[in-house]
Specification:
Elements: E1 4-9, H1 15-32, E2 39-40, E3 43-44, E4 54-59, E5 65-73, H2 79-82, E6 99-107, H3 118-135, E7 140-146, H4 147-156, E8 161-162, E9 169-171, E10 174-182, H5 185-191
Helix pairs in contact: 3-4, 3-5
């Protein structure tokens, strides 16, 4: 089973792909993590799904979306700055055309139907995010992450460091931190290596 990745803006993404992406977000954030998010039917979207957003996502041969992430330049409205400023501590929110917030990052845990492991899906999605960054002159991703996601990135070998005040904060029922993922040779080596998932 082969994986492919797509990168689309809010305005260019096809309606079928967008609906599948929102369904995956609903499954992960509302059903599995039980976050208190506004939803419509089995779709999850919020005020940051606007023309400022772009989407990087991966899918299998059958068109199943196995992972996705939303990217917003920090020169625009973004979640860390406006919704979770306590994670910044005393630091000012970043505003740079070269730094993007990565939000609504999620991986479909039901990857067995695609003969694909969870770790490979994660690595492949970060390969897509790396290539997107190189093509669009992005030097860094910032993301508000749960502790389980932080641990998964460590296991998968994705290089990152804590950002903001570097402390764990409880957001509702979720323990969260801010992570910085630099677009550099270390990330390239981590995500561009061959990976056998069969």
């Amino acid at each position: 089973m082969n994986l492919t990745f797509k990168q689309q803006s809010f305005e260019s993404i096809s309606k079928p792909d967008y609906m599948r992406l929102l369904e995956l977000r609903y499954d992960v954030f509302r059903k599995r993590l039980k976050w208190d998010l506004p939803t419509e039917g089995n779709l999850e979207s919020d005020q940051y799904d606007t023309p400022d957003a772009s989407y990087v996502y991966i899918e299998d041969d059958l068109g199943n979306i196995l992972g996705c992430g939303r990217l917003i330049p920090t020169t625009k409205s973004y979640m860390l700055k406006e919704i979770f400023p306590e994670l910044l501590g005393n630091q000012m929110a970043v505003e740079s055309s070269h730094v993007y917030e990565l939000s609504r990052f999620c991986i479909n845990k039901n990857t067995s139907q695609s003969n694909c492991t969870l770790s490979y899906s994660t690595q492949f999605l970060f390969k897509a995010l790396y290539l997107h960054a190189v093509e669009n002159d992005i030097s860094e991703y910032l993301t508000v992450s749960t502790l389980p996601i932080e641990r998964m990135l460590k296991r998968t070998g994705i290089p990152f460091q804590r950002a903001g005040d570097q402390k764990v904060h409880r957001l509702g029922d979720t323990k969260s931190v801010t992570l910085s993922i630099k677009i550099n040779d270390e990330l390239r080596r981590a995500v561009m290596k061959d990976y056998d998932y069969h």
